[in-house]
Design goal:
The protein has helices at residues 44-54, 60-69, 109-121, 173-186, 195-204, 210-219, 271-282; strands at 4-12, 41-42, 84-86, 89-97, 103-107, 140-142, 150-153, 156-161, 164-168, 205-208, 222-229, 236-246, 252-259, 286-288, 299-305. The protein has 307 residues and is of the alpha+beta class. The strands form 2 sheets. Strands 1, 2, 3, 4, 5, 6, 7, 8, 9, 10, 13, 14 and 15 form a 13-stranded mixed sheet that branches. Strand 7 and strand 8 (156-161) form a beta hairpin. The longest helix has 14 residues, at 173-186. The protein is globular and about 70 Å long.
């Protein structure tokens, strides 16, 4: 039973490829997705491995690290388990090309309901009641009253994402503003270089119906073609043409960090203290998730929110 919890946000600064290996679909190397919804995820095993490597340390802190993540040496693995539980990272905001305002941060009632559920586990009041947006129909959206996404067409005002136009539901504008304030305070990094993102989130935030959001996260990801050339002829080597899928930069993901009592007999600190130590190591930190690190992929900024 977890005794302390915190929200872990990961903001993608470059495209993120958390892959599943080779597949038989239209993309050779797809990203990880939930079986039921098709929403992108980063599996907990990948996240925990990165957190473990990022917080590796010596001295007294090494005992806290071992209590949280378990022994480093394989021959000691059976002595005790770590007390840290990490969940999959789930989608919160997905960037989509917009006719006005360059791009929109899109989300949906389901994504917000999941965020609210994780926030509840962490003891944090959720961003907004997701049932406020449940009446959104396909082809409709909600933005703030000062949104940069609005497009005027004759007597009507709407939003155009990719080649699809959406009708505004104006009465939901205040709820989108509340959501933007919550995300700015809890989810976005607080460092000075993120001031533009914090100031502009409300102007670019767009809540869509679940079906529309699902279609964008299924078909709006980055697809890159890779080739390997033969040295002699500079033509494509046999079987050396493949495609890779990645989450676009500006995507926001969220997961949960939960700590139980320490199972390490040399560490008597409680779950709150151990999670507090980990929060200090991770909050505001930049790490690499997924593959293709040498070509700049997977740079994310972490934010930890807890009471």
């Amino acid at each position: 039973m977890a005794e302390a919890c915190a929200l872990l946000f990961a903001y993608c600064e470059t495209p993120l490829h958390a892959g599943t290996g080779r597949a038989l679909g239209t993309v050779d190397l797809p990203i990880q997705r939930e079986r039921i919804t098709g929403f992108p995820i980063v599996q907990a095993s990948s996240v925990k491995g990165v957190l473990r490597a990022t917080t590796q340390t010596n001295g007294a802190d090494a005992e806290r690290h071992r209590a949280l993540f378990g022994p480093d040496r394989p021959e000691e693995a059976s002595s005790h388990a770590g007390c840290l539980q990490v969940t999959d990272l789930q989608i919160v905001l997905f960037p989509v090309r917009s006719l006005s305002g360059v791009f929109a941060w899109t989300t949906s009632p389901t994504a917000l309901a999941r965020l609210g559920r994780l926030a509840q586990l962490a003891g944090i009041e959720g961003p907004v009641d997701p049932t406020r947006f449940i009446a959104l129909q396909p082809g409709q959206c909600a933005v703030t009253s000062s949104s940069a996404l609005r497009v005027q067409a004759g007597q009507q005002t709407g939003v155009v994402l990719e080649e699809y136009s959406f009708t505004l539901v104006s009465e939901l504008a205040d709820h989108v503003s509340v959501l933007a304030e919550w995300l700015t305070a809890h989810a976005l990094p607080q460092s000075p270089e993120y001031s533009w993102w914090r100031e502009n989130l409300a102007k670019h935030l767009c809540v869509l119906a679940d079906n529309d959001f699902r279609d964008f996260v299924l078909y709006g990801t980055e697809i890159e073609a890779h080739v390997r050339l033969k040295d002699e002829t500079k033509t494509v080597d046999q079987g050396a043409l493949w495609t890779t899928e990645a989450l676009p930069a500006e995507t926001l993901l969220v997961g949960l960090l939960a700590a139980t009592r320490s199972r390490y007999d040399k560490m008597n600190e409680g779950a709150q203290s151990l999670l507090g130590w980990l929060t200090g190591k991770l909050d505001g930190r930049r790490v690499r998730l997924g593959g293709d690190e040498t070509t700049g992929r997977g740079a994310v900024a972490l934010r930890v929110a807890r009471v």
